[in-house]
Design brief:
Length: 384
């Protein structure tokens, strides 16, 4: 059993399709400065830094060295992780374990992306087999469309179920000043938006954002001293898989089921739908906000559409999902999962502003990567 660890500060940039006012290093500095301010620390209080992004999409080598000025990491240990779409949550997991292991007391986790200067989809396409799969599974949209089509056929889910999720997330983002997309929409607006790849439409899908996020993790003794209400890490679990897309299980998410089951076991969760107060989930398309609810053990396979229609995951529902607007409204890929961790921490700390869920004491966080990778982190107001 490692040391107990709490999150004591969070900072993120204002996200946009293009941040022409800032370079990548300046975006990183913006997030880091805000996290330090949030924790009322200076960079001298940071023992080490974990950084990550999808650097092979950005054409930047040795991002951990290139970003030193923005990180404030001169003469500090720095290391980089990158695991595709899960990069942000992997950064959080690495920072957590680095503190829990006793290696460092206070660790700064930073994720970033400047998608306006890269070609993410062209790079993502290379993970598909060039002969068997690339024509129809290239990029992010094709596989997501395929899995929901299969789920619709298996369980009777509909395009409207996904549209309900899209409208919910986009309207939640109206309360988030950092969100890239802040646009009031109706279910009808989503259904009428242009088709990208059946059944996914334009308003069902996430954007590509410029932005950065920073989260500060501290060992128990320091966290208690430095923060009046840390967000304690109760569990952190990673489950990665790789297979040809055609061999995937399409009606549920095996890695998410395994990761969440293990995280619940570690945190003593037996009824996740009832026990969590809020969730910040990596849902790159609204269709995921239907199908993947099954794989978080909120219900039996195929029952998620009923929960969506009943408003269970709305802000005034049983388990509010993505009060921030989620990935559908903000997606600087290397930072996206870390934003989920940061937003959940703010919920526990009571610092989420207009998007605050009242009396949030236990939060669920997930990350997702394209070859069926899943990360799960559980944060709480009480010590684990």
């Amino acid at each position: 059993m490692g040391k107990r660890v709490g999150i004591i500060g969070v900072g993120q940039t204002h996200h946009a399709s293009q941040r022409l006012d800032a370079s990548g290093v300046e975006l990183i500095a913006e997030a880091v400065t805000r996290a330090l301010d949030d924790a009322e620390l200076t960079v001298k209080d940071i023992d080490a830094v974990v950084i990550g992004n999808m650097d092979h999409f950005e054409n930047i080598n040795y991002v951990d060295m290139w970003a030193v000025d923005g990180l404030g990491a001169v003469m500090k240990p720095v290391f980089k992780v990158t695991t595709g779409g899960t990069t942000g949550t992997t950064i959080a997991a690495c920072a957590f374990y680095t503190v829990a292991s006793g290696l460092f007391d206070v660790v700064l986790a930073v994720g970033w992306e400047k998608n306006s200067e890269s070609d993410t989809q062209a790079a993502v396409a290379t993970c598909a087999n060039p002969v068997l799969e690339r024509d129809f599974f290239a990029g992010a949209i094709g596989p997501l469309a395929t899995e929901y089509s299969m789920y619709m056929k298996a369980y009777g889910a509909t395009e409207e179920d996904a549209a309900i999720v899209a409208a919910r997330e986009r309207n939640n983002a109206l309360n988030n000043p950092y969100a890239h997309v802040r646009q009031a929409v109706t279910v009808e607006d989503v259904l009428k938006s242009p088709m990208l790849s059946y059944p996914i439409k334009f308003l069902d899908m996430c954007p590509r954002s410029d932005g950065a996020c920073a989260v500060i993790f501290a060992v128990e003794e320091k966290a208690k001293k430095l923060c009046p209400k840390p967000a304690w890490v109760h569990a952190s679990v990673v489950r990665h898989d790789y297979t040809h897309f055609g061999d995937l299980e399409w009606t549920f998410m095996p890695t998410l089921e395994r990761a969440s089951a293990e995280a619940y076991k570690l945190a003593g969760i037996t009824n996740p739908l009832k026990e969590f107060d809020v969730a910040e989930l990596y849902l790159p398309a609204s269709t995921c906000g239907v199908k993947w609810m099954d794989s978080l053990w909120f219900c039996e396979h195929g029952e998620a559409p009923k929960l969506v229609r009943k408003g269970v995951f709305d802000m005034d529902g049983e388990l509010p999902v993505n009060p921030s607007g989620g990935v559908i409204c903000t997606n600087p890929i290397g930072a996206t999962g870390l934003i989920r961790v940061g937003e959940a921490a703010w919920q526990i700390m009571g610092r989420a502003g207009a998007r605050q869920v009242e009396n949030a004491r236990l939060a669920l966080v997930t990350g997702f990567g394209g070859c069926s990778w899943s990360d799960v982190m559980i944060l709480g107001a009480d010590l684990p």
